[in-house]
Amino acid sequence: MRVAKKTDGQNFQAEIRDLQRTVIELRSELERRQMMIDDAVQAAKRDSALEIAQLKATIGELRNELERLGIQRDHEVQKALASRQDELTQLKKHIESLRAKLEGLLSEKDAAVQAVHVSYTGEIQQLRAMAGKLREELESSRAERENAVHKVGMQTKNEITQLHETIQAMRLEMERLKA
User: Fold this and answer.
1) How many Cβ atoms sit within 10 Å of the Cβ of residue 75?
2) CA 44, 50, 51: angle at the middle one, nearest 5?
3) For the chain, how big is the Rg over CA atoms in Å?
4) Distance CA 174, CA 165 (A)
5) Residue 91 and residue 31: Cα distance in Å, rounded?
6) Distances 87 to 49, 83, 84, 97, 101 between C-alpha atoms, Å
7) Model pLDDT for residues 117-170, shown as the tens digit of each residue
8) C-alpha–C-alpha distance, residues 18 and 8, integer Å
9) How do residues 81-125 score in pLDDT, each as one tens digit?
10) CB atoms < 10 A from the CB of 48, how many?
11) CA 123 from centroid of its chain's CA atoms
């Protein structure tokens, strides 16, 4: 039995050594894995830091681009406003010029209308005077015609009366000749 004990003790010691070796190997494996995890964490931190730095740089570039675009837009707006202001100023000048021309034309038109009015007023007065003269001539012509018609009528009446008298005298003479 002693042999068995020794064997059992030897087995037990061998088992302990195996276990110790296993523990050492596991510890080594654990340390190796811990180092790999630490390396992976460090690499992830570096990658994150790089990515964050790249994102910050991208954000900075985008912010700069946005500011450039804002400045460019403001410049274009100012340029458009200045252009509009120039255009408005030119339009105002053109309107003033047209207004002055219109006022000139209106004053010329008023002067022309006044001249035509004066001219027509003179012509109207002449026509009225002429119409008065023609009326007077017409009335005197009518009076002369009526006098002439009355005179002719009187002469005709006298002639008719003489013809009646002559006819009467001839009848009497015919009756006397017949009798």
Assistant:
1) 10
2) 85
3) 72
4) 14
5) 86
6) 55, 6, 5, 15, 21
7) 788 888 888 888 888 888 888 888 888 888 888 888 889 889 889 989 999 998
8) 15
9) 988 898 889 988 989 998 999 888 888 888 888 887 788 888 888
10) 10
11) 50
